[in-house]
């Protein structure tokens, strides 16, 4: 076996010009971690401001710019790329039994596009920011905003091409580069999830692209596109924005579902219950996700008949999501469960995603939405999906594959502690916001009536805990790079081709192309071969 | 000069054919993405051409049908000429690729020149929306809206033309170096897909910007 991909050529140049999907994954990991920290600073300032009813540290205008920064950075520079470009880039070829992605150079290009888009957005944010919210609604964004709309919008436009490149790469790789014997129904469920995500990348992102281009054109030349005073229709912007951004919500959850399927199976030592249902539910979430965007516009002047139809489809999309939740529980039922850190994150995901999903039904109901829309109920709902769900899955996946990526074990005790703290801090931050919203506190205001203070203080306290909990993995992951125990090839005793090569893998991934002879998650077979009569689970080193 | 009929060292593929099929698939997926980029634009145009029909049609009537029609013919011809390059590539006839490629790129350039002339006329007639917009009367707002879309759509299409011409010239350069053979001419095909797509977009833009509402 030749040298690991990490050390084969240590020069900076070899990293910046690499075509190795594993190195590109690490380049992405560094970039999105920086953006996660930046978005986190925004969140911290928001929660500090809301400690007091009249606000504490930010002017009203600065507050508006701060929540916009938080939203823009977290959505496009962290959540949308998160799992696909880091774990996905690293794992897709390994899980397929391939040497690399289908288009290695395109993969590197996507990272450069991402960095360029990030710099453009940062330029806009540091030269004054903007106050439109991450949704850029017109005519505020096109006409009234005094902020730096143009560089940010153009940055996000560029960002889209990075997403599209990743999507094209994953789809072609999964079609073309499966190892001998790797049939579609033997693919790990992570790949089904990433495939569905990639379809959304390819088909939804360009619509955001053209929408933002129209917005930039209108703002730059002061010509009519969406501006009602110039003959345009501002609601058309919302229609087009959500045609992308609702499917994008599924970009921000499907990869997490893929990660959770892998982790649950490994730490229960059972095949995922109802494999085909879980696989196809990813595809149907992606498909139905394209026809629910109108539920963001129930009170925006949409016709009642459209609203009823969009409401109905929104209920439909909860069915495949629920299928997944029940099947993960079915997998755990009767399994020999080990509560290592990745499993704690996965269980956190299941619980928090369920709360987020169920509260989504309130918002999909027309009458309830009239009361709840534009309140903190919505804020709490989507943070349960995106932070409670996706970020938990992202951290779970990082812990699960960390030994494979770096060749080092992270300290398990600290991992479990951080997982527990994140779960606790998250709930303390966001559960009060459900109540706040239900009682009528609107979102996106710098001040609030005094009666809401207790719940806001609780929420801010939770955010403090969450901040500490998110810094912990940064510290012990860094520590493990130098001091962590050497990881064996398969520390969790997991199935999946990525565990059949060295930790960290050599540049060419596999010494020889693996041949697949069993279904995914064939734990009976694996345990029998390892001579484990008790299906005893992973061994720690 | 890499020879595409063999795989380079780090290739993730087993055979050159395997790699070439993947390249074609990748381009098709990219074009699906492009179709939705322009699809969003077409959608907004269609909505406004209905909801703001009067002024929109006023705008359509002021477009230059002659240049539009001639350009349509030029672009169809360019696509047809490029198919000769694809055929030549498959035969391994590098000189044929260069000839047809330069023909297709030249026609593409002619399209852009004519488009530039048309834009020049429109700017001098104050048809670019703004305080001095030429069309007056009650429908002037929607006519200005039409011209917003006219300029953005033709600009976006023009950018795709520039990229396409660049790609064709790159193919010509490779062909001059004798890169293509019966065993390998995939880049000629891949660029052909893109060039046909740019052509196809114009086939939709032409009726949308020049014809519908004119009568």
Keywords:
heterodimer; A: 541 residues; mainly alpha; Cytochrome C Oxidase, Chain A; globular; B: 215 residues; 77% helix; elongated
Rounded mean pLDDT score of chain A: 94
CATH first level of chain A: Mainly Alpha
Stated plainly, the CATH topology of chain B is called Four Helix Bundle (Hemerythrin (Met), subunit A)
Q: Share of helix among residues of chain A?
A: 55-70%
Record field, number of beta strands of chain B: 0
- CATH architecture label of chain B: Up-down Bundle
Distance between the termini of chain A: 22 Å
Radius of gyration of chain B: 20 Å
* Overall SS class of chain B: mainly alpha
Looking at the chains present, what oligomeric state does this protein adopt?
heterodimer
Q: Name the beta content range of chain A.
A: under 5%
CATH H-level superfamily title of chain B: Cytochrome c oxidase, subunit III, four-helix bundle
The CATH homologous superfamily of chain A corresponds to: Cytochrome c oxidase-like, subunit I domain
**Gap from first CA to last CA of chain B:** 56 Å
- N-to-C SSE series of chain B? HHHHHH
Amount of beta strand of chain B: under 5%
If classified by CATH, what would the architecture of chain A be? Up-down Bundle
Shape of chain A: globular
Membrane topology (chain A): Multi-pass membrane protein
Keywords (chain A): Electron transport, Heme, Iron, Membrane, Metal-binding, Respiratory chain, Transmembrane, Transmembrane helix, Transport
InterPro entries (chain A): Cyt_c_oxase-like_su1_dom, Cyt_c_oxase-like_su1_sf, Cyt_C_Oxase_1, Cyt_c_Oxase_su1_BS
Domain Cytochrome oxidase subunit I profile (chain A): 1-517
């Amino acid at each position: 076996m030749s040298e690991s991909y990490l050390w084969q050529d240590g020069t900076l140049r070899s990293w910046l010009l690499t075509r190795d999907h594993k190195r590109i994954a690490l380049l992405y990991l560094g970039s999105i971690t920086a953006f996660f920290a930046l978005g986190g600073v925004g969140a911290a300032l928001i929660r500090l401001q809301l400690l007091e009813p009249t606000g504490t540290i930010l002017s009203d205008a600065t507050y508006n710019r701060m929540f916009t920064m938080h939203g823009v950075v977290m959505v496009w520079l962290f959540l949308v790329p998160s799992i696909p470009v880091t774990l996905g880039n690293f794992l897709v070829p390994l899980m397929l039994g391939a040497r690399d992605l289908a288009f290695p150079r395109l993969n590197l290009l996507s990272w450069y596009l991402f960095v360029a888009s990030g710099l453009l957005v940062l330029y806009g944010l540091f030269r004054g920011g903007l106050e439109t919210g991450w949704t850029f609604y017109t005519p505020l964004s096109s006409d009234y905003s005094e902020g730096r709309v143009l560089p940010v919008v153009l940055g996000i436009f560029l960002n889209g091409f990075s997403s599209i490149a990743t999507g094209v790469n994953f789809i072609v790789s999964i079609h073309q580069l499966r190892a001998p014997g790797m049939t579609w129904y033997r693919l790990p469920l992570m790949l089904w999830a990433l495939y569905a995500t990639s379809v959304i990348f390819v088909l939804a992102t360009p619509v955001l692209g053209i929408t933002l281009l129209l917005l930039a054109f209108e703002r730059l030349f002061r010509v009519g596109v969406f501006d009602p005073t110039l003959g345009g229709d501002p609601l058309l912007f919302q229609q087009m924005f959500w045609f992308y951004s609702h499917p994008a919500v599924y970009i921000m959850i499907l990869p997490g579902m893929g990660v959770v399927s892998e982790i649950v199976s490994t730490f229960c030592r059972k095949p995922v219950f109802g494999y085909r249902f879980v696989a196809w539910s990813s595809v149907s979430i992606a498909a139905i996700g394209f026809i629910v965007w109108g539920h963001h516009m129930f009170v925006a002047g949409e016709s009642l008949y459209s609203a009823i139809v969009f409401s109905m489809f929104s209920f439909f999309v909860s069915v495949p999501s629920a299928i997944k939740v029940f099947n993960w529980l079915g997998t755990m039922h009767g399994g020999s469960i080990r509560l290592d850190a990745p499993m704690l994150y996965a269980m956190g995901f299941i619980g928090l995603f369920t709360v987020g999903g169920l509260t989504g039904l309130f918002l999909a109901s027309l009458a309830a939405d009239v009361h709840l829309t534009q309140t903190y109920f919505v804020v709490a709902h989507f943070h349960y999906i995106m932070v409670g769900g996706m970020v938990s899955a992202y951290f779970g996946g990082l812990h699960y594959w960390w030994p494979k990526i770096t060749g080092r074990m992270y300290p398990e005790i600290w991992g479990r502690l951080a997982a527990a703290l994140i779960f606790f801090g998250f709930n303390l931050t966001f559960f009060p916001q459900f109540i706040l919203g239900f009682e009528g506190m609107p979102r996106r205001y710098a001040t609030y009536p005094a009666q809401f203070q207790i719940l806001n203080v609780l929420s801010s306290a939770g955010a403090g805990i969450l901040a500490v909990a998110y810094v912990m993995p940064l510290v012990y992951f860094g520590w493990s790079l130098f001091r962590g125990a050497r990881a064996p090839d398969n520390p969790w005793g997991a199935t999946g081709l990525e565990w059949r090569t060295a930790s960290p893998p050599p540049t060419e991934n596999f010494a020889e192309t693996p041949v697949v002879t069993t279904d995914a998650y064939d734990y009976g077979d694996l345990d029998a071969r390892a001579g484990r009569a008790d299906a005893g689970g992973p061994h720690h080193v | 000069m890499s020879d595409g009929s063999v795989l380079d060292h780090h290739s993730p593929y087993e055979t050159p054919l395997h790699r070439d099929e993947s390249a074609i698939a990748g381009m098709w997926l990219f074009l699906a993405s492009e179709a939705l980029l322009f699809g969003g634009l077409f959608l907004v145009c269609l909505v406004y051409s209905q909801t703001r029909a009067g002024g929109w049609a006023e705008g359509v009537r002021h477009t230059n049908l002659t240049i539009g029609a001639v350009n349509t013919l030029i672009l169809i011809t360019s696509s047809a000429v490029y198919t000769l390059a694809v055929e030549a590539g498959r035969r391994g006839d590098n000189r044929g690729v260069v000839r047809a490629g330069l023909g297709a790129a030249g026609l593409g350039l002619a399209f852009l020149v004519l488009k530039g002339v048309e834009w020049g006329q429109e700017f001098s007639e104050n048809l670019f929306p703004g305080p001095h917009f030429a069309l007056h009367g009650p429908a002037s707002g929607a006519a200005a809206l039409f011209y917003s879309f006219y300029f953005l759509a033709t600009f976006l299409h023009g950018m795709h033309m520039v990229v396409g011409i660049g790609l064709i010239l790159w193919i010509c350069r490779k062909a001059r170096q004798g890169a293509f053979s019966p065993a390998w001419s995939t880049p000629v095909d891949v660029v052909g897909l893109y060039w046909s797509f740019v052509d196809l977009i114009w086939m939709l833009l032409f009726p949308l910007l020049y014809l519908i509402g004119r009568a």
